[in-house]
Amino acid sequence: MNTSQTNFHEFSGGQGDRNLDLYIQALNSANSGIIITDNKQPDNPIVYCNRAFETITGYSRNEIIGHNCRFLQAQDRAQPERKLLSDCIEQGLDCKVEMRNYKKNGDLFWNELYLSPVKNSEGEITHFIGVQNDVTARKKAEHDLIEEKASVEQKIQERTKELRENQVFLSSIIQTVRESLLVLDPDFTVLSANGHFLKTFKVSAEETVGKVLYELGNHQWDIDLLKELLVKILPTNNPVIDFEVEHNFPHIGKKLMLLNAYRIEHDGQYKDRILLAIEDITDRREIERRKDDFLSIASHELKTPLTTIKGLVQLLQRMQDGGITEKYKATLTKVSVYVDRLNNLISELLDTSRIQSGNIELHIEPFDIDHLVKDTVDNIALTVPGYEISVSGKSGAIISGDESQISQVVNNLVSNAIKYSPGSKKIEIHIARISNFVKVSIRDFGMGISAQDKPRIFERFYRAGDIQKKFPGMGIGLYISHEIIANHDGTLWVESEVGEGSTFSFTLPISKK
């Protein structure tokens, strides 16, 4: 009989049993560690252990038998589970605990222990049977899960704090912007409105937030153009930039507004929100109107005396006789030149005023665009001897438009090509027929235009920084030319590189026969 069987015989009082070998074999085949302690002996020593217990603890049977189970806790004896285990043994109760135990080599392992009392026929507790499992892997997984949960919770707290701080920061920016801002949900209910909106439109937050936009102020915002922007334009053209709306509000009067709208479509906290910025340009547009009125009135007032001066200068030139000195003649000629220059500036101001007010008149007649370009260039060439101005190509097209205005555009573009090419005497003009349009290009080999100036070159009164330092002018010639071409359903644009010259081109639709 082997040692395990002998020990078991000792535990069983030496009584033989034909099934004993089967029981011992079953116990040694178990994956769980099994021990039996003798409760009738002092300190309740271990009197049996199976092979799995030896494997789990790393101790051999000879190092286990006779010891109390607490030797597995080594010096780690402050565990509350030890007290629970002791109380259950003292009271003879079933018990389940999870404790930190230590193998022979000192490695920590978590022991899941089931302890049950064994009673004799008189009901006296003679032994305890303990079944233990190494649950270290499970405890590690639980620990990792707890740590991961704690880490996730910390990240959530940090992210929540960050979002809250960002929200406060964004709210502060929105409240300080000098422009009315609204945040709408997909149903156009106002979720927030900044202070500038409340002040401009004389409403309170209680009257605004939570209300449908169209219903604000007793339906004052039930504006057809606003509905067009939000319902028709915004979903197909995101975002909407500088959408002009004019509306007469019963309580605050007529307002001219510039609307910018953006729909947030990406996932996140603010998905499906609509940002609506409303700029009140009523006062600014009124100032511009007054300025245009002033330009118009001033130009008209200047035109009358200037016409008189021009007539008197021409009269003096015709009255010259042999007694007038050459110096007098030269001075009179200079006066006439500067009067013409001033007259041209005033005419440009008048044209600008008419364009802004929408009162520019078009005298539409059919004309030969090729002849117009050549005649205009020939007239300019007479005033600037020494310049090589060439015209190439032809369209053979008839244009319906205001011939004098198109001539003004050509004159202005060629004059600019001469003016801004101080180091070059060459100007190239090309005429071409492209589909049902005529294209006219004026190329110079002068100073060119920088990339930052090109987008604004056709704005009223805009002049590039380096140009305004070197050349006189008011910055309205290109603006007038651009508007004239636009009024003729054409386009005017520029291609240029600094130091490489510029090419101004415009197109005009050919008349249908």
Based on the model shown, name its key terms.
single chain, 513 residues, alpha+beta, five-stranded antiparallel sheet, elongated, disordered N terminus
Written overview of the protein:
- The protein contains 16 helices and 17 strands.
- Strands 2-1-5-4-3 form a 5-stranded antiparallel beta sheet, with helices on both faces. The protein has a 5-stranded antiparallel beta sheet with strand order 7-6-10-9-8, with helices on both faces. The chain has a 5-stranded mixed beta sheet with strand order 12-14-15-17-16.
- The protein is 44% helix and 24% strand.
- It is elongated and about 160 Å long.
- The N and C termini lie far apart (125 Å).
Assembly state of the chains shown:
single chain
Helix segment count?
16
Low-confidence stretches: 1-16
Strand content: 15-25%
Q: What Rg do the Cα atoms give? A: 49 Å
DSSP E strands, number = 17
Main β-sheet description: 5 strands, antiparallel
How do the strands line up in the largest sheet? 2-1-5-4-3
Helical/strand content category: alpha+beta
Overall average pLDDT: 81
Distance between the termini: 125 Å
Helix content: 40-55%
Shape: elongated
